Amino acid sequence: MIRYILIFMNIQESFGKIVRSIREAKGMSIDDLADAAGLHYTYVSDVERGRRNITLKTIHALASGLKVHPSRLLTTGDDKFVEGMAILGSLNQKNLDMATEILKILVRQEPRSG
pLDDT by residue (tens digit) across 5-40? Predict the structure, then answer.
């Protein structure tokens, strides 16, 4: 039973980190996100710290406030990946196109293993 509680807590914490990462990449404060999502700022703060058991309705509200698809909030992975995706998601189309071209150059220059 304790094992399942710990796994659930890790899910809540991971979700909160993803929300925080996207919010910060978009230059939003907790108050900004709370207003955009129609939630109280203390609730958003608790979500980001992994202290709230959220519903699908809350996931949708947060995604709407962040202007991302709800699935972006459920993507797991390491923090650098999540941070990178949040940064890319916050770019306008012109800068996103430029970042994509830069990433393509970096991938071509990456040494191949094997």
Answer: 444 457 888 889 899 989 998 999 999 999 999 999
Domain assignment present for residue 9? The answer is yes
Structural domain harbouring 16? 2-109
Contact predicate 85/75, CB 8 Å: yes
What's the 3-state SS for 35-92?
Answer: HHHCCCHHHHHHHHCCCCCCCHHHHHHHHHHHCCCHHHHCCCCCHHHHHHHHHHHCCC
Residue 8, in any domain of the structure: yes
Number of separate domains in the chain: 1
Render pLDDT for 86-105 as a digit per residue (tens, 0 to 9).
Answer: 778 788 899 989 988 888 88
